[in-house]
Amino acid sequence: MDTKHRILDEALTLFSEKGYANVFVGDIAERVGIKAPSLYKHYKSKQAIFDAIIEEMNERFVKEAGALNISGTDPTMDAGIYKGISEEQMIELGKNLFLYYLHDDYTKRFRKMLTIEQFHDKELAEVYMKQYYDDPLSYQGMLFGLMVASGVLSTDNVQVMTLHFYAPIYLLLTVCDRDPAREEECLKLLDAHLRQFDKIYGRSIG
Amino acid sequence: MDTKHRILDEALTLFSEKGYANVFVGDIAERVGIKAPSLYKHYKSKQAIFDAIIEEMNERFVKEAGALNISGTDPTMDAGIYKGISEEQMIELGKNLFLYYLHDDYTKRFRKMLTIEQFHDKELAEVYMKQYYDDPLSYQGMLFGLMVASGVLSTDNVQVMTLHFYAPIYLLLTVCDRDPAREEECLKLLDAHLRQFDKIYGRSIG
DNA sequence: CTTGACGGCTAATCGCAATTAGCCTATAAT
DNA sequence: ATTATAGGCTAATTGCGATTAGCCGTCAAG
User: Fold this and answer.
1) What is the SS3 string spanning B67-84?
2) CA torsion angle A65 A66 A67 A71 (round to 10)
3) In angstroms, what CA-CA distances link A177 with A181, B106, B126?
4) Which of A28, A146, B149, B199 qualifies as a FRET site for B123, CA 20 to 30 Å off?
């Protein structure tokens, strides 16, 4: 990885741990293995480093748009996949979604940075909301809608069902972000949540 | 309110909006209506102001310990109350919990500040977790356990049921914190969530 | 009535962290 | 071979923001 890119990488790590204001350009430089003034050969200012991170993120998010969402293709296709899914497979999928969010290094650091910086910048708050509320709910809602249509799931309110699926995942994720030591505990609860979700909304009742 | 206390109040407002590092003591002073150096007649340093806020919070949290939790008394008593509760009353209670968290001015500012500052300070992360995960889940879990015992609710996993009750509330709260304009939308969804929760776990099935 | 604490003000100071200046080496293109 | 450029370094410079110094009016207690 070239220096220019390593700066972004180390800066993201530091920003996600301490927040923009508490990171000095010298800290970033040190991790990259250069001196602070050398950073300015690559970026005009500290703010420019931050901006570059945001821009890189936007690119990634566009590229990986569907990647978080199970198949990575369009939801119609996903629903086709789900038609013949077993309870165990459904649980596996929920877990994978969670573990992707939790462990993907870039995603994780970015999420923490957004959490810290979201109130500084209206734009960041919007990015956060989109990533962790609107997009998951709308994508999964669409998916669940199709699954309801095909009789795999049963409910008279897809939106609330989606909320019931996603909200615990989100909550457990925030727990793990704050205290990685609780990961195992959260994974157990996640498993129980997914089983219960399946019991409530799955074929057995529909 | 005396100056000393107004400083804390204004500082909390600013910290919750912009984060500790982005607030200058001059900003706080200006809001209070004095000049920056005069602050030092009341607090030794900017950090001391922050610490005083945390301490004040700890006091409030102890005092209001049960206040968030419906009756404010012990859960055994609360379960008694719930025994004869109607669906509408249950929904009302869930909404009130949500609205208290959302609108109580002190709680709200404090929550936002914790959100921003939690990664700076391990202690704050712990406070956050306790306030928004452990305490609600354990208190409500106890309550729901009693309600299950008395046949008001039905489930074979109280912990997951509690998660299903609370996680959507938490998620919707984070949405409103970030974008107050979405409050109405969130309240509608909250209402639908509570109704659905009642349908799933309420007497009708038990 | 006078004194001392309280709380405010203006004008420094102090320190730190971002940024700039200016220099040097290596390498790649002409 | 020459030169331009990229990218690194050390040594300033700058600017801002926290904090201190030192002054002043008020007011309550003696």
Assistant:
1) CCCCCCCCHHHHHHHHHC
2) -170
3) 10, 25, 12
4) A28
Rounded distance between C-alpha atoms, residue A171 and residue B132, angstroms: 10
CA neighbor of B81 nearest in space, from B143, B19, B157: B143
Q: How many CA atoms lie within 13 A of B110 on its CB side?
A: 24
Q: Rounded to an integer, what distance in angstroms lies between the CA atom of residue A193 and that of residue B160?
A: 6
Structure tokens at B61: 């949290």
Indicate the pTM of the whole model: 0.91
In angstroms, what separates the C-alpha of B91 from chain A's closest C-alpha?
15
**If you count them, how many residues does chain A have?**
206
The CA distance from A100 to the nearest CA of chain B, in Å, is 19
CB–CB of B182/B102 below 8 Å?
no
CB-nearest partner of B160 from A126, A163, A192: A192
From the list A16, A120, A159, the residue facing B189 with the nearest CB is A159
Phi, psi of B114, deg, nearest 5: -60, -40
Across the interface, do A112 and B119 touch by the CB < 8 Å criterion? Answer: yes
pLDDT tens track of chain B, all 206 residues?
799 999 999 999 999 999 999 999 999 999 999 999 999 999 999 999 999 999 999 888 877 765 555 444 556 666 667 667 777 887 888 898 899 999 999 999 999 999 998 877 788 899 899 999 999 999 989 988 988 988 889 999 999 999 999 999 999 999 999 999 999 999 999 999 999 999 999 875 43
Helices (H), A19-86: 25-32, 36-39, 46-63, 75-83
| Residues 23-52 of A, Cβ under 7 A from nucleic strand C | 23-26, 36-37, 40, 44-47
